[in-house]
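Support case: user asked for a sample of complex input and structure output to validate their parser. Sending the pair below.
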Amino acid sequence: MTLASPLATRVLSGDRRALARAISAVEDRLPGAAELMATVYRRAGRAHLTGITGPPGVGKSTLVHALISGHRGRGMTVGALCIDPSSTISQGALLGDRVRMGGFHEDEGVYIRSMATRGTLGGLARAAGAAVILMDAADLDEVLVETVGVGQSELNIRNAVDLVVLVLMPGSGDSVQLLKAGVMEIPDIIVVNKRDRAGAAELAADLRRTPPSGAGGAAPRPRIILTDALSGDGVAELGDAISEVRGHRTEQGGVGAQRADTAAAVLELALEQVREQLAGIVEDGQAAALLDAVSARRTDPGSAAHALLEQCFGPDGARMATAS
Ligand SMILES: Nc1nc2c(ncn2[C@@H]2O[C@H](COP(=O)(O)OP(=O)(O)OP(=O)(O)O)[C@@H](O)[C@H]2O)c(=O)[nH]1
Ligand SMILES: [Mg+2]
């Protein structure tokens, strides 16, 4: 028996130290991590999962802190996952400090975790997705996931959460342009934080006037909420908006929508695994001769790609991958 079984039992019973170990096991890809995930997944699906994203410094962590307080006030247990794709510092030193130091460290009802890049962005997304499932399975009522992100470079957490809140502030003009241009995925809710600062009302009016276009297709207009995360002004309204959107989602999101979400999540994981395996072959130098052949124009990139797939998955796997 590997580490999976006893650890899974402890995670499912709400043991926070077991949860921490389980997330590390997934991050480090320890033997048994996949089995652990397979076991806990069956028991997850009860928590409310909310993504909080936006450009650096707009007040995401402060807002997460305020939301945690609100949830605790209603007796909910809360998990917060703070992800920083730009940092490679692991566990704590920098990340999520604003939340971590916010006085929750002695509260058993709050579990806070930070995650930084260890390998690829896809690898981080995979680990984050798994951490969310573990926190959900560990009997936390609300799970908040903070990620830095603007436009297409953002770490895609949409598949890991039920809904996404984009946080902006007056002066974060670039991201507003990206949103309008349809470069950025349309969030469910847009928060104009730092409403105490000049330009907040104008930004909100601007967003209302010109709704984001593109990426989301027929997606409904996002709700726009103004907050001051430091004073807590507007945070209750944000909490209500999150509940409402979630309610709608549950009513409308039939099996079809759920299957589409599941398909996206599974596809992303599969692609990440394929990507990692292929990259491993290239990085190990096992494909050096092949790459040299392309450089010397003895073979073309398409044929080389097929040969690489063959090297990784054997002739049958490669044939399936390039059949279409
Ligand atoms: N005036 C004002 N300042 C705020 C507000 N919310 C957050 N801040 C301040 O803005 C700064 C950044 O806040 P954070 O919560 O760390 O922002 P963040 O988006 O999590 O930042 P990163 O995680 O580094 O991307 C801090 O100095 C906060 O105190 C607000 O509503 N009004
Ligand atoms: Mg932050």
